[in-house]
User: What shape does this take?
Amino acid sequence: MSFPVQRSRVGRRVAPRTRAGRLRLLLVEFLFDDPYGRDKSEMFPFWLGQARALGLEAAWRFAGLYSRDTSGHLDRHTVRPSPAETRSLFATIRELRPTHLIFSEAIDGGLQRRLARTFPRTKQVSIWDDPDVRSLYCPADWLPRRLGLPTNAWEGRWLLDAVEPQYDNRLIPPPRGRAEPPRPYVAVIAGPVCLYGRPLARNPYYAGLELPPGPGAIGCAFCRKRELVYRLKTPPVELALRQCRTAAATLDRFSGDTYLIRAARVALGFGDFVQAVLDADLPPSRFLFSYRVDELLRVADQVTAKLPGLARAGHRLRIYNPGIENFSARENERFNKGISPEQVDRVVAQIRRWAGAFPETFSFESFGMILFTPWTTLDDVAVNYRRLRNFTFPEIGMEWRRLRSKLQILPETAIARLAARDGALVDSFDGFFFWDGRCVGDPRQRELPWRFLDPRTAVFYELVWRLTAAQEPGARPADALARRTLELFQSRPDRWPHVLDFLLEKLDAATRDPPIEDPADLLERIRRGLPAPPPRAARRAPRSEKTRPVATGIRRTETPLGRLLRIEAPSLPARLARLLASARSPLPGWRLHSWAPRAGDGPFELTLELRRRDERLELRLAPADAPGPAFVEQGPLKLWFADSTPLDTPEKQQGVQQLARLLGRTLERTAR
Assistant: This one.
């Protein structure tokens, strides 16, 4: 194939342009509310580096989705930008004039057609439905093959081995009036993300069952696995460090200074990796690691040994989402999980030691739980709820979603075959209020609907989802039964200071004979069994036990910590406003918008609303001896965040924790 010879204006011959030199590649990554849901863009830095090595003009851009909540995942896998978001996207395409365009997600058919009409010379290259790209071992010849370029130099090699990644990226300007999204983390990929391989054939629950082929026959029964074998030539720590070092040296990038280490061999070699980071003299950064509970115990000595060095270098470490799944032995055995409650206790104790010794360096983001499955009995629920009642942050938060968390059954998993054999699969999710599709990975994938095999559990769950959903800030009861359930729970704060207290009493009522018929019958059973409320105080409390009136007329004893918070409340907003505006603000760019005492029964509390452009954070401060677990407990304070304004980025989580620490120390100094 020959290319036309170009001539300059003065008639001199110039070198012919190569095929690659006429190509321009644009990589567009969509940013979701879930900070961890970026698996489809993991190859972007490698494609960017490879495209430029091939002589292409190439760029990587982030596109925010500002018009809808994408944290639930139900509608996130086919992207439908708003008109304003589409205009911003099209303006970038016009500016860069790509010949080839790669999106991180599948896009709506209407948008595809509009793109084809508006940019007829731009070819859209799909990755979400390509098994080569979805595998960890993307062939190095994938991109040149899609671009119509020679592949000889790349054949037989893996992309991660063959290419130096590049990380310069920018944000497509958001529509007018929209704030920039949080800066995304840098994904560090260096082999399989999990190495757990206990064979399901040895599990008595799966005896006689035909298991899925390959990785589907080992490990956790609910997991959608990809690879467990390390095939790359580059050693895992070397490969991971190369990505961190290159990203850290890239100044022109929108992605932040947080590195999500998605590599089990690097996580298990924690000490070697951290030493390599320290030797490389990287700027202060945050590193996110995910472990199984038993794996975290294996590396505990390495973490303990390296935390002082991380602290001196200004780095931060965050351990996130180890899966407990379930405290019921039979439920976890059915999951083929391979961990015990005793291991969880040891991990919790270790986490407390790290958090206490290095509060500015180490942080933890709760455990993963699956409380409800087709096989769950009320005895299983009791094991979990009673265990959860004894936990507080940072071990397990008891937010509403966790208390109703349910198994998601994907068709390719071993547990799907077990559910089919046991008659648990049904035609639709009509019986479930709560379904978020969180484990669904692409538009073609689906979650299998299922039913409870124990009728009592099915009735119990009907009230669980109603109450937990109605308890979310800003939510309304879903129906009359939800409204009656919420009213009953709120009528007796003396008996049920936390929703879990109510659920445990409801659980006790559900286990009694005769068997419950329906959720309304269970609710009435609880109501009939209630003792009379305690009488109001007949005399004025002594001076040492000051009380305060509340909306219902009940007078509660005020503790010293509650009195301290109430006395200091008028001055706290000014202190908080100064802190947020200062150079040491734990939440840069955020400002105090409003504050108010929280009306109702119970100890004195403050509700704070912070804002950053059109973002909101609603926080609640209470004395440390207030009932129930909290997101942060610091000295005399507890702090919660509203589910309506979730801490959906690591920056918000870390910032709110630090904010609570600073406010708690302020009150501690005042108390002295």
Q: What stands out?
A: Confidence is low (pLDDT under 50) at residues 1-16, 537-556. Residues 650-671 form the longest helix (22 residues). The first strand starts at residue 24 and ends at 31.
